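Example (one chain per record):
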Amino acid sequence: MSDHAEDLLRLLSESATAKTLTKAVFSTPRSAEPEFQRVSIRPVDVRGRWLIQVTSQSATQEFHKNWEVAEAVPELTRLATKVFRNVRITTTTGIYEARTSRKGKCFLRKESLPAVTATPPVASHNRTRNYLIPEGVPCPFLIHTGVMTKEGSVRASHSRKFGQINRFLEFINDVVDLLPTDRPINIVDFGCGKSYLTFATHYLLTSILKRDCQITGLDRRSDVVQTCTKIATDLQLPNLTFSVGDIAGFESTSTVDLVISLHACDTATDEALAQAVRWQSRVILAVPCCQHELNEHLSAASLAPLSSYGLIKERFASLTTDAMRGTLLTAAGYQTQILEFIDMEHTPKNLLIRSVRRSEKTATDAAAKALAEISSLREQLQVPPLTLERRLNERGLLLSAVVPSLNELAHVLTTVATGGSTAGSEGAS
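Predicted structure:
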């Protein structure tokens, strides 16, 4: 083990033990088929106990757990020496970048922090959190929508909404680097309702991240659109507009980079996802609800004994619907994750679908596999194609994702029929 590797392990151990660690991100897996693509850690305060929170991300899921410091140290060592090649560590005294070559040589570089804090910021699981929009600081749109008082205090009746807004902003913040930097980011919020998240997204991008954006909120109710338009006018918010209309009929005059949809009821979520795919939006963030369509198609014979219990059948249908949505988005050329939106104690509708468009080269094989999985699942459940699959098929958005695979299959079948070789030998068609 090189000197830099020893320095790295010492840094991880001492910063965790001395409580000077504020964040560490492990990336670039050593294995060709890793269990996790990335692991992030940070300190959290749980009822007065200083713990290390671990967030492990696979290609499709995200997992959370907390470690005591004593068990964290050997785990951090394992992550740095056995699982990942790169790690970025932030402590109260500096930022460190460690990279391990394929030959096992470790390079550790330190960056100085512009300002040193006496104690590391620790997220609390009790009452306060490090929100992107902090409590106690007046925020204009939250005051206008009644979430905050003029002094910046969050009203008790809106505390859950405040947490929900900030949680959604974390998802936006995670994907903002994937969005254009050479022009304004174009965003559409389908089923915006009272537009808490529309205003929040605009505030995050323009006031916090200093990015140019154009955001459109769409809803079927003219009264809420009028209210939101008045707030935007009163606050003089540039490039934020609201329109009355249906999701399926909405057209954008420019490229839509990010589509968001929060609690668009039942198949309205499918219409929003289908529009996003048709536009080839770079990122999709959707929190579905009221997934009734599949439930109505499930027969007792195909689902026994789950169908004997109404509540169980409903929850099964809800989870299966979102799994099918994620798989269909994969079939349409996206890398999709289904993540926890907010804690179950706040709402049972706590899943978020996050999809990022893949390059054509990486999308083909995944798309073909996803289509096969959807077909197999529908056959098992004895149900027809649901709204999202129908919409994507109507517009040729699933077929186009797997055209190369279909062409390859056609070539193989032709070759076999003519007695030739699939390896391109003489006489093959």
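Caption: The CA atoms of residues 393 and 399 lie 7 Å apart.
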